[in-house]
Design a protein that fits this description.
The protein has 504 residues and is an alpha+beta fold. The protein has 3 domains: 95 residues, Beta-clip-like (Beta Complex); 165 residues, no CATH class; 195 residues, Alpha-Beta Complex (set domain protein methyltransferase, domain 2), CATH 3.90.1420. It is built from 19 helices and 12 strands. Strands 1-4-9-8 form a 4-stranded antiparallel sheet, with no helix packed on it. Strands 2-3-10-7 form a 4-stranded mixed sheet. A hairpin with a 7-residue loop joins strand 2 and strand 3. Helix 17 runs antiparallel to helix 19. The longest helix is centred in the C-terminal third of the chain and has 51 residues. It is globular and about 85 Å long. Bound molecules: S-adenosylmethionine. S-adenosylmethionine binds next to strand 3, helix 11 and strand 7.
């Protein structure tokens, strides 16, 4: 009990110190008469910003001077080890790290993502000496992104393609090559006197924490939105000048805003400062919400560690080509044999556009300029690329030859379309079977046991994917029915005059 109240008061102190620190920043503004940073842990949303009174549209809620952003241009790390910040130098990192032992420039060369991880580790290690200390204190130390889930928790995602995207091993490799190597080569910079030394396992953990923080909190720093004509002018070092990419930065206060698919605030990127503005009237007690984009709940979970009902409209499901191919083979590839089929696959794979899997999604209108969503998202068709790949495959089958009559007859467009739709329908059904529970069981689980935390989020992701699969199947079935109806109308029309002729 006491532990809880201690934790609560630490949380409240963290918020107070952060807001007070923010207000002292030169050039910062914060409408404390209109908004407050509040404890939203009761609804699993950490801290967030709530309207204290009714706020009219277009009100500026707070302003963040660019000098307050943590990025490679502002962190003192760039003066301590300038070599690694030279992104145009392909040997960056390797040459500066001084070890250069493996002679492999690309494995240790940096990008804006890895440099920000290094800058965040540096600032963290500075402790009280970091100008961002009160801000760093309110950033999370633990995450709900699947990167940190146990195998048992991950298994709740069942057949979701998200499981393959977690990428823990890949992240470990990147951290070893680009973060640990640099920190170890500059222990004096990263471990100032008085700071605790970290062993490799602790450093790996800290790098993961900073990587996850950046993933969920950092902003792509755009150029001034009003400055449209300035293309080509790479000024002030705010814009990473390679390939027109923007610079990543941690933006205090802007990242205290939570976000949803329906939102009411926007961060404008100005020349000297970023401003948070109300997009529409916000009522007292309402949460001020930003927008992360039209993300499926699976992607929201992967990047940010949460899901919301409003993001379900953007849910997607992946249909592996292997399932379509296997159904096609069952239908028409019977006489081709293993080798013939292998030949077909090799031919088809020569196509540059060949895809291993296809994303099925609904059509959805963008939110309007005030952040509100309009009509429901609807499944309106299979991806064109899937149809193209199916055609490529049929052509390859004809070339290889020795196929059943069904394929020989494929010169007829409707027969081909019918074969396509029926094959995909069966593949969609097979895809649904890959999940350990049915959509109906998931609905029941969501209603009856009302799971919480990671279990709830996994349930939402897999249920959302199954819903898209069901809608896709209904759409394909409808397309088959329409094709059949057209065919029987044509048959009747063909029969009509012929019958008359016979009578004559
Ligand atoms: C940019 S931060 C927002 C501030 C954050 N709530 C905090 O306490 O630091 C993004 C993180 O906030 C949480 N978050 C954002 N929007 C949310 C929402 N609508 N519901 C629940 N959590 C949300 C997620 O954990 C996400 O990774």
């Amino acid at each position: 009990m006491e532990v809880d109240s201690d934790a609560n008061s630490r949380f409240a102190d963290g918020t107070r110190n952060f807001v007070a620190w923010f207000q002292t920043l030169p050039g910062a503004t914060f409408r404390s008469d209109l908004i407050a940073v509040e404890d939203l842990r009761g609804r699993n949303a950490g801290r967030g910003i709530i309207a204290k009174q009714d706020i009219p549209a277009d009100t500026v809620l707070f302003t963040i001077p660019r000098t307050a952003i943590i990025c490679t241009a502002t962190s003192a790390l760039k003066d301590k080890i300038p070599g690694i910040f030279d992104l145009d130098n392909d040997d960056a990192g390797k040459s500066d790290s001084g070890d250069g032992g493996d002679g492999e420039a690309t494995s240790s060369s940096q990008d804006s993502w890895t440099l920000l991880i290094l800058a965040m580790i540096y600032e963290h290690q500075q402790g009280d000496a970091s100008p961002w200390k009160p801000y760093l204190d309110v950033l999370p130390a633990a995450f709900d992104t699947p990167m940190f889930w146990s195998p048992a928790e991950l298994s709740q995602l069942q057949a979701s393609a998200l499981v393959a995207k977690v990428g823990k091993a890949e992240a470990d490799r990147m951290i070893q090559a680009k973060i640990v190597s640099v920190v170890r080569a500059h222990n004096d910079v990263f471990f100032p006197p008085g700071s605790a030394h970290l062993d490799d396992a602790q450093l790996l953990q800290l790098a993961h924490r900073m990587g996850s923080t950046i993933m969920a909190y950092a902003f792509d720093l755009e150029k001034d939105e009003a400055d449209d004509g300035g293309e080509g002018e790479e000024d002030e070092g705010w814009v990473e000048d390679r390939e027109g990419k923007t610079m990543l930065g941690m933006v205090p206060m802007a990242d205290i805003l939570n976000a949803d698919a329906s939102f009411n605030a926007h961060i404008n990127h100005g020349g000297d400062a970023l401003t948070a503005t109300a997009l529409r009237p916000i009522r007292a007690g309402e949460e001020v919400l930003n927008y992360y984009g039209p993300l499926a709940n699976g992607e929201l979970l992967r990047r940010y560690g949460y899901v919301t009902p409003a993001h379900a409209r953007y849910d997607v499901v992946e249909l592996p080509w292997a399932l379509v191919e296997s159904e096609l083979r069952d239908r028409v590839g019977g006489r081709m044999g293993k080798e013939g089929w292998e030949e077909v696959r090799q031919l088809a794979e020569k196509d540059e556009e060949f895809e291993e899997s296809f994303v099925l999604e609904r059509s959805s209108e963008d939110p309007d300029s005030t952040g509100e969503l309009g009509s429901d998202a609807v499944f309106t068709g299979l991806p064109d690329e899937l149809g193209e790949q199916f055609k490529t495959f049929l052509k390859a089958m004809k070339k290889v030859g020795n196929v059943e009559l069904a394929v020989q007859a494929l010169s007829d467009k409707d027969t081909r379309k019918d074969l396509y739709l029926r094959t995909v329908l069966r593949a969609l059904h097979a895809r649904e079977q890959q999940y350990a529970t049915s959509l109906e069981e998931d609905e029941r689980l969501a209603g009856a046991s009302q799971p919480s935390g990671r279990e709830r989020m996994a349930l939402w992701v897999r249920r959302g994917e199954k819903q898209v699969l069901r809608e896709a199947q209904a759409w394909v079935q409808q397309a088959i029915n329409e094709l059949q109806a057209q065919a029987s109308t044509r048959t009747r029309e063909d029969d009509g005059p012929a019958a008359k002729r016979r009578r004559m």
